[in-house]
Model the fold of this input.
Amino acid sequence: MSSQQQPLLADSKGDNFNYNSVNSQDGVSRTPGIGTGALQYRPDPLRWYILMVLCVMNISNAMFVLGSWLNLIGLVVRYVSTLKFLVNYHDQLPVYVVFAGQTLTAIAQAFFLFAPTKLAAVWFPDNHRALANTIGSTSNPLGILVAFVASPMLVDTAKDIPVMLGWFIVPGAIGCFMASLCIYKGKPEIPPSASAAMDSEPFFTGIKKLFTNKAYVMLFISFGAGFALFSALSSLLSQIVCVKGYNDVFAGICGAAIIIAGFIGAMVAGLYVDSSKKFGLTAKVTFSMSVVFICAFYIASQQEDQSVLLAISTAGFGFFGFATLPISYELGVEATYPVAEGTSGGFLAMSGQIQGIVLVLVGQYLAVDISPEDEEIQVCSKDNSVKDLKYTALMFAVYSVVAAILYVFGVRTKYHRLLAEERDRVDGTLNYRSTENSVEPLPIL
Done:
């Protein structure tokens, strides 16, 4: 066999794969006469484009072709609610229309919320999976930040709301166009890794395996708590700090600090985990550090003139909390493989959403009347309806500590996906004899 025709095993640490093989009907490249270990893998060039589409969709709240169209329709319907002629038919019709549009965009969320983990597993090799998951997972909060910053710039009075809603259609339209134009297949013809080439468990079988897996159950509870804390704190941040004299502008700066620092932290953690594969250790360290900063936030939020400490604590919470997000998704896949990545990641996100709703409701319930001393410095409202959420902030701190204990001591698992891929590489290596100018198959005994 000449050097120009030699088949080479796929290098799992790079993007360049050179092979001479026979393509089977299922699209997986196989070398003649070699067993499962000789499967050839390569990442599809389309993977980065699909990830970019996901990021654009997350800014406006949608995913891929069906989700992108559903989202775009919802955005347009929401804009239509501002048209004045609707009140000629019924004075409450604009309200119904805007709720209809918001409902459509919320339904579209189901098409992308659980997608990053699945997309990373199906389209990316093992040395890019955590980074791809990071980019996809953090693009949604980044979109929230864009809307948060853009809204005050676009709206001065109520008459400017149609302008804002019109601009919000733009990213949805761009994402819809990108998805409809170039996304024409659900997975690459040649899988990027051994795990991507293998079949996942059926859906209901996978669910059963998820909730009989102790490590995953602990991850489901503790990660969901961390996810919920971000949602709840983002929702109630202004109400918590305004009692001590911190205005909405400062609360907005703290909210932006959470997301910006979080994006940086998630990127750093994603790159590190891709190279080290230390999912559990990294996630436990970042989760624990995020708890330290949320406790610092509670202390600072109960005092006046602590703007610097508040800003640092929120940024620290974002940096370490967001770093935990994609790593936990990957850890969930490793703990439950071969359960489908979308199933394991989807239930983790669902846990966060459910716990987030509970935390916000309980947080509002724990609100108490403001003290006479705080009444003089509060900037929440000019009327007598101001409530103090100091017990809510304390509850967030305690909740985070309990979640961290469960995460650190309860989430213990082998990395089943990595082990399966390593076995595949070993099988492939054992089936080859390497010479100076060629790689020939060994006889199977």
Q: What stands out?
A: The radius of gyration is 25 Å.
